[in-house]
TrEMBL record:
UDP-N-acetyl-alpha-D-glucosamine binds at residues 97, 319, 341. It is found in: Cytoplasm. InterPro entries: Enolpyruvate_Tfrase_dom (IPR001986), Enolpyruvate_Tfrase_sf (IPR036968), MurA_subfamily (IPR050068), RNA3'P_cycl/enolpyr_Trfase_a/b (IPR013792), UDP_GlcNAc_COvinyl_MurA (IPR005750). Belongs to the EPSP synthase family. MurA subfamily. The lineage of its organism: Bacteria, Pseudomonadati, Bacteroidota, Cytophagia, Cytophagales. It comes from Nibribacter ruber. CDD domains: UdpNAET. This is UDP-N-acetylglucosamine 1-carboxyvinyltransferase. PANTHER family: UDP-N-ACETYLGLUCOSAMINE 1-CARBOXYVINYLTRANSFERASE. It catalyses: phosphoenolpyruvate + UDP-N-acetyl-alpha-D-glucosamine = UDP-N-acetyl-3-O-(1-carboxyvinyl)-alpha-D-glucosamine + phosphate. Its EC number is 2.5.1.7. Gene3D superfamilies: Enolpyruvate transferase domain. Residues 8-421 form the Enolpyruvate transferase domain. The keyword S-adenosyl-L-methionine does not apply. Phosphoenolpyruvate binds at residues 22-23.
Length: 434
């Protein structure tokens, strides 16, 4: 198990380029299964989860050619459906949660799909009911085998329908949209997710010949077509990385410029960090964060304590709540962090408390952070990363802390962040992989 040794308390300075968006990549890569024609995708992040999905597609029979470090051509001309019954497929599909999104394309194009119960971060319950209820509404037959934890779908003739999703699931919306593009008739998906990543997927599908309207809203209307063709697609920069870098600059008193951040796609992320006291300037599509000796948490108009909580898009993404919590530990003021979606995602605050942070864990979903205004710096400790997002939040804490920290289980961080140690070291950090 690899670890990071971090020498904290050093201000950083320079420019950093965010990687391609992980959450978009997992959707876009699955969509290549919808056509036998070549699909060229660029700005693909070189991270563990994405590489595992590319390997899975290759083993399923998809021709994969790497054109450049971040660009691949995929051609799903000879997909081997028998591979879905092999032990190798079971192990690969269980290793990444994003594998669930191969089901919509396989069902749409081949009339069947099967998948073992996928893995992923241990951040709480992440049910898949939305996916399978939607597939059934399109006319598929769903079966779950409890003995081997396998999901089975059959549906040779999908038909468009109206569906009201019980939750605005991003992966659920993506899966159902990919199934509906080849269904007969019109499908209406209401309470659809509308994250930029989902918008990117829909725009790519339209370039492939799909007919999707309502992109960017919570109602997608999809007119089924007989087949899809190839296309080229470039992915957005990762908004979670961008938010993490904003938080890092504030915590470490650093002057950082985040290049090509595609600011219009960031939603409330910049405003939320501004409310936590971090100054920033937009320079075209770059975000400039000046060095700050201190930063102060905003309050509501009546002076009451600010709450930062996660919401469906365009609300604040749950993937950045861990970072917001860490940032608040060194701010002036108090904030309530409310993680609504996952009941285990705040279970890393004990490590921050050991570092000297003032945090009250109210319950599995809420934590009150009393900021120390950088008067009592965090101190370095040994700790273990429990999941991808908490791992990066702990890395930010270690970079701002006095002394030496060691973060174990950094494989979790590598699943979502490309060469994070190398890129931060290039602007003055001291992170050693041990």
């Amino acid at each position: 198990m690899a670890s990071f040794e971090v020498l904290g308390g050093r201000p950083l300075n320079g420019e950093i380029i965010p990687q391609g968006a992980k959450n978009e990549a997992l959707q876009i890569l699955c969509a290549v299964l919808l056509t036998s024609e070549p699909v060229v995708i660029s700005n693909i992040p070189n991270i563990r989860d994405v590489n595992k999905l590319i390997e899975l597609l290759r083993d399923m029979g998809v021709q994969v050619e790497q054109n450049a470090p971040d660009t691949y051509t995929f051609k799903a001309q000879d997909v081997n459906l028998d591979y879905l019954s092999t032990q190798s497929f079971i192990e690969q599909a269980r290793a990444i949660r994003g594998s669930v999104m191969i089901m919509g394309p396989l069902l749409a194009r081949f009339g069947m799909a099967k998948l073992p119960k996928p893995g992923g971060d241990k951040i709480g319950r992440r049910r898949l009911d939305t996916h399978f209820i939607g597939f059934e509404k399109l006319g598929a037959t769903f079966k779950y085998d409890a003995q081997d934890s396998f999901y089975h779908l059959e549906g040779k003739h999908l038909k468009g329908t109206y569906m009201l999703l019980d939750e605005a699931s991003v992966t659920g919306t993506a899966n159902l949209a990919m199934a509906a593009v080849l269904a007969e008739g019109i499908t209406t998906i209401y309470n659809a997710a509308c994250e930029p990543y989902l918008q990117q997927l829909c725009k790519m599908l339209n370039r492939m010949g799909a007919k999707i309207s309502g992109i960017g809203s919570n109602m997608l209307i999809i007119e089924g077509v007989e087949k899809l063709g190839g296309t080229e697609h470039r992915m957005l920069p990762d908004m979670i990385e961008i938010g993490s870098f904003i938080g890092l600059a504030g915590m470490t008193g650093s002057e950082i410029t985040i290049k090509d951040a595609q600011i219009r796609e960031l939603g409330l992320i910049p405003d939320t960090f501004r409310r936590l006291g971090i100054n920033m300037e937009f320079r075209g599509d770059d975000i400039f964060i000046p060095a700050q000796d201190s930063y102060e948490i905003d309050t509501y108009i009546d002076g009451s304590i600010l709450t930062v909580s996660d919401h469906t898009w365009p609300g604040f993404t749950p993937d950045l709540l861990s970072v917001a919590l860490v940032v608040a530990t060194q701010a002036k003021g108090t904030v309530l962090i409310h993680q609504k979606m996952f009941e285990s995602r705040l279970f890393f605050v004990d490590k921050l408390i050991d570092m000297g942070a003032q945090i009250i864990l109210c319950d599995p979903h809420r934590a009150t952070v009393i900021g120390q205004n950088k008067q009592v710096p965090l101190r370095g400790i040994d700790m273990t990363s429990p999941d991808i997002r908490a791992g990066v939040a702990l890395l930010l804490a270690a970079l701002s802390a006095e002394g030496r920290s060691v973060i174990h289980n950094i494989e979790q961080i590598d699943r979502g962040y490309q060469n994070i140690d190398g890129r931060l070291n290039a602007i003055g950090a001291s992170i050693t992989r041990i």
